[in-house]
Structures are given as C-alpha cells and as structure tokens.
From TrEMBL, chain B:
Coiled coil: none annotated. Keywords: ATP-binding, Nucleotide-binding, Transport. Pfam families: ABC_tran, BCA_ABC_TP_C. PROSITE patterns: ABC_TRANSPORTER_1, ABC_TRANSPORTER_2. One of its GO terms (cellular component) is plasma membrane. It comes from Zafaria cholistanensis. One of its GO terms (molecular function) is ATP binding. InterPro entries: AAA+_ATPase, ABC_AA/LPS_Transport, ABC_transporter-like_ATP-bd, ABC_transporter-like_CS, BCA_ABC_TP_C, P-loop_NTPase. This is ABC transporter domain-containing protein.
Length: 319, 257
C-alpha cells in the first residue's frame, strides 16, 4: 500500500486537485446555474496565492485563504450582476469572465509574470492537507445533496417557478451558488498552484472548462460522487493506458460523446438507475393500499371503503 | 391548526382583488377584476379557454406581474411580494400541468411542500414528515410513498401534487384544473376531498372546466370572459346565466336552445 502510494503520489494529488476544480463547476450545474466561472476563480485563487507567497512573503495558509476568499468575493459580485441570465447566455458570460482573468494575468506585467506566469511558489502543502481540505468541501456539498436542502436545490434546478411557488427563494440560491463555486474554485487554484509551485495564464483558459466538463459528464452531474468517479477516470486513464496520453484530446472527446449519448447521468447515474430498477423489481407493482393503513391515520375508520377513508380520514383528526 | 367555519351571512374576506389587470403588450389577459374570497368557502372560476383564468391564478401567486390593481390577503396588500414570499403568507397552489420532481419519490415530492416553510432541525423534520404523511393519506397516495412519479398514473400524479399543496398547510388553496384528465370516480374523490378541507375552514379557489363538478362543489362561481368578470354568484344561477352560456357555447347555440 505504502509503496503503491509513493509511486503514485503525483497522480493521487492530481486526482484531488482536478476533483476540486470539477466540484466548483458541478455545484452551479446542480443548482441549475450554467456557470463556468469556477475556472476563472481557479485563476484568481492561484495567482493571488502565488503573488502573496512569492512577492509579499505571506505564509502558505494565509495565502491560500486570501486567494480563496478573493475568488469567492469576486464570483459573488459576478453572480449579483448576471444571476438572472440563464442557459447559454449565462454560460457565455461566465466563460468570458474566466477569459478576462486569463487576459489580466497575461497583461499583469511583473506582478503576474505575463505570459510565462509565476514560478517558485512552492508552499508547504502536503497531500494530506489537500485530502483534509477536499473532505471539508465534500462534506459541505454532501449536506447540500441530502434531505430537505437537497430536495430544494433539485427543485431550483428542475423548475424554478415551482420552487418559488413552494416558498423557495430561487434568487438567493443562485447568488449563493456563485459564492460557493467561487470559493471552491479559488481554493482549487490556490492549492494547486502552491503544490506545483507554478501558474501560467494557459491554465486559466478554455481547456480547463473542457477538463472540468469531461469529469462531470463522465462521472455524473448529480452528486460529488460523480465528480470523484470522473476525476479518477480522467487522471488515471493516461497512466493505465500509456497511449491515451498521446491521443488525450481525441479520446476524451470520444468519451464525452459516448457518455452524453448513452449515459446522460454519467457513470453514477447508471449505477443509481440500476439500483432503482433492482429495488423496483423486488417490490410488488403496483403496490396495493395496505388494508391496515387506517389504523395509522388519526380519526380513520378501518371499516369504510378505501377511497372514502383515504380522502376523509383526517377530517376531525388532530391536524 | 384551528380553522373556524364561518357560516354567517357576510363572512370575512380572506382575499381581495381590486381592479387587477394583467396586460401582455396589447393582450388584456386579465382586465380590471374586482372580487373577494370569503373565508372557508370554495369559489370556482368558470370561463372558456383563454379567458384569463390561469393568468389570474398566476397573478394571485405573484408569478405574473400586475399591470395595475391591488391584491390583499388577510387584509394586507401583498402585490409587491416576490413569488417565493406568497407561500409564506399562506397561499398554496397546484398547476394546470402537474409539476413534480421525477427523480424523487412521492413522499419526497410531498415533503417539498413543507421544506421551505418549516425551520431546519430534528423537530421540524419530524413535523414536516407528519404533515406530508397526513396529506398523502388524505389524497389517497400514502401507499405510493416510495414510488417515483414517472411510474404513476395521471390521476395519481394529480393527487401527489394536491398532497404537496395540502402539506403546505395553506389558508388559501388555489387549484388550477385539479381534475383535468380524470375519470368520473376520481373527480368525485377530489370533490369529496375539497369538501372535507372546507369543513376545516380552508378557503379554496378552483379553476375547472367540468361545470357539473363546479356546481356540486363550489359555494359560489365567478364567470370570466376576455379577462373580465361577467357574472358572479350562486353556482346554479351563474351556470344558467345567458351571458355565461353564450361565452361557453356561442350565441347561435344559445338562441336555438
């Protein structure tokens, strides 16, 4: 185990940082916000941390924290401006945001190192640190996927008008999604940069959007678990099959096309579907109303016919 | 929850609309409606397709912007509310086409009615669960709790949507064609449910095409045409009114009748 880890530490690290970036794109998609601002936030977080660390002698963790917060704050401001856009228009606006970050990085002079970026920003971050941060982010996202919170987010995505009719403040959800996405993207950028000691404008371009989307589409967009599956596939494929590295773009494109056509919910969606079907087969269909149901309902009369009972049972009951 | 039934001659108005208009460009979908909903009654809105019924429901829930007019609920003007605030005031609705989360089971869909209206925490979760189970029992979909909506019949999908609205424990329930596509027996079940909710004092506004059901269930009817209120009153009288028959059947048919 230890030997395996030592041999593969770099790939494990890449899996975790890829996952963080993918999560910053997956969260807005799950709330129904078609935003790729997470990539721009990756750049903001990464550059901020690197500049603070190399030019202002700020320690590793304060640099990471400031990069994360700045990215979150800017992404929230972006959300305030554009959260009412939808679909492709929102997608375009957020990609433009990410490209603006890249342009600013390229033209930032000595502060950002221009087209060659910043070097020598090797902070004191270990894989264990990354794992802990990742666990924290995943825990937060997991909470947002289960129970009432998960249901409300699903409704905001699937049917915003219905969500409002159920009393859910759709606008607030959308705005807070920009904040959370910015924080995760910023964290991903800051951590990745101080791990690898370098960041360049080339890392904040459209290629990153494609990588994040590939991870999400292959794994599944409905849960962090899908992003984890996608991140593992994307980072390990080139190491398992060496020829993949040479044909990366073509093979990833092919995988995305296959997943989009045959697995609209990704690998995770396929797994969930199989579990659901397996459960449905074990359940007698259609389920008949159990005869003893009336006893459970306050005020119910066990002797009355099924429909009458079910419609009028709580009349006069303690509601 | 204690809803007192009010049988006095002039019951309190729970909801009042004054000169409400919704214009889409040149189209006057709703054009100057003034009416009130007496507490604890079932009021039906009658009118041919395109007469502005659903737009009116959308205006009441604040999904549709008003061109002019005021809306009062429990004496408070709420015309400036954003849509998501309306359920918190105690107004719940169902939709003309059933809207459910297909990936979530029936229980979770009904729980959605309580999710944003109850605070977080264990006690609230238990309360929400109780409310949802009760609502499912009343609408007759409690045995379907673990089934996904895409496996349900049309009538049962309607029931789940009504259960979700009931779970919100509203003071005013808006039902937009709740029995569309249902058979006679199913319609009667919905009718029975509405009457049992009325017995608890729940005010209901129903949009429906089935005139017979409206006459049997409603305390009074509002007849609309071209965005305006044409007749208002006791169901049988409204249905017999020549202006209503003309709006529904056309001038010629009324003449030959």
């Amino acid at each position: 185990m230890m030997a395996w880890y030592t041999a593969n530490a770099v790939v494990v690290q890449a899996t975790m940082t890829t996952l963080l970036l993918a999560l910053s794109i997956q969260l807005p998609l799950r709330v129904g916000v078609f935003s790729f601002a997470g990539v721009g936030c990756f750049g903001i977080g990464g550059y901020t941390a690197a500049i603070l660390y190399t030019k202002f002698d700020v320690d590793t963790w304060p640099a990471v924290a400031l990069g994360t917060l700045l990215a979150g704050g800017l992404c929230y401001l972006l959300g305030l401006i554009i959260h009412k856009l939808s679909g492709l228009y929102l997608g375009m606006a957020t990609i433009a945001f990410s490209l603006i970050v890249a342009v600013a990085a390229t033209n930032g002079g000595s502060l950002t190192g221009g087209a060659s970026g910043i070097f020598g920003a090797l902070g004191g971050i270990t894989n264990l640190h990354v794992l802990l941060l990742l666990a924290l982010v995943v825990a937060g996202l997991a909470i947002s996927e289960y129970g009432r919170f998960g249901r409300m987010i699903d409704t905001v995505r699937e049917d915003p008008e219905l969500a409002a009719a159920l009393g859910i403040n759709v606008g607030r959800y959308r705005k807070l999604t920009f904040l959370a996405s910015g924080l995760i993207g910023g964290l991903a950028g800051a951590v990745t940069t101080l791990l690898r000691s370098t960041i360049t404008p080339a890392e904040v371009n459209f290629h990153m959007v494609v990588v994040a989307l590939t991870v999400i589409i292959i794994g599944g967009s409905s849960s962090w678990l899908g992003a984890l599956i996608g991140a593992i596939v994307i980072t390990w494929l080139p190491t398992v099959l060496s020829f993949v590295a040479d044909w990366e773009s073509i093979i990833y494109g092919f995988l995305v096309a296959l997943a989009a056509i045959f697995l609209p919910g990704g690998v995770l969606g396929l797994a969930k579907d199989l579990i659901h079907r397996w459960r449905a087969r074990r359940r007698p269909t259609p389920p008949a109303p159990p005869a003893s149901e009336a006893e459970k309902i306050p005020g119910g009369e066990p002797s009355s016919p099924a429909t009458e009972r079910s419609l009028a049972s709580t009349q006069g009951g303690t509601s | 929850m204690s809803r007192s039934q009010n049988d006095s001659a002039d019951p309190r108005m729970i909801f009042e609309a004054d000169d409400v208009a919704v214009h889409f460009g040149g189209v006057k979908a709703v054009d100057g409606l003034t009416f009130g909903l007496p507490e604890g009654k079932i009021i039906g809105i009658l009118g041919p397709n395109g007469s502005g019924k659903s737009t009116l429901v959308g205006a009441i829930t604040r999904h549709v912007p008003l061109t002019r007019g005021t809306l009062k609920f429990l004496g408070k003007d709420y015309a400036g509310d954003e849509p998501h605030l309306v359920p918190h005031r105690g107004i719940a609705r169902t939709f003309q086409t059933v809207r459910l989360l297909e990936e979530r089971n029936v229980l979770e869909n009904v729980l959605l009615g309580t999710d944003s209206l109850t605070a977080g925490g264990r006690a609230a979760r238990r309360l929400g669960q109780e409310r949802a189970e009760q609502a499912m029992a009343r609408t007759g979909c409690d045995h379907l709790a673990k089934v996904r909506p895409d496996e349900l019949s049309y009538g049962n999908r309607r029931r789940v949507e009504i259960a979700r609205a009931i779970a919100m424990e509203p003071k005013l329930l808006l039902l937009d064609e709740p029995t569309a596509g249902m058979g006679r027996a199913e319609k009667e079940e919905i009718s029975t449910l509405m009457l049992s909710l009325r017995a608890e004092g729940l005010t209901q506004l129903i949009v429906e095409h089935d005139v017979q059901m409206m006459v049997d269930t409603c305390d009074s009817l509002l007849a609309m045409n071209f965005g305006k209120l044409i007749v208002e009153g006791e169901p049988r009288e409204v249905v017999r009114n020549p202006a209503v028959q003309e709006a529904y059947l056309g001038k010629q048919a009324v003449k030959h009748a």
